[in-house]
Amino acid sequence: MTNRDLHGNGGGRFAAVFFDLDGTLVSERSGVREARTAVGERLIALGLYSKPATAFADTIEMVIGGIMEDNDWQWPLWLHAEEWMKRSLAVEQITVSEDEFAELGRVYRDERSDRAEAIQGWREALAAARRHGPIGLITNFNDGPMQRQKIRGAGLEGQFDGVYISGEVGVWKPEPGIFEHAARDLGVDPGQCVHIGNNIQSDVEGALSAGMSAVLVEEDDRPRPAGLNGNVVWCEDLLGVAEWLEG
Ligand SMILES: [Mg+2]
Question: Cα(43) to centroid of ligand 1, in Å?
Answer without folding.
Answer: 32
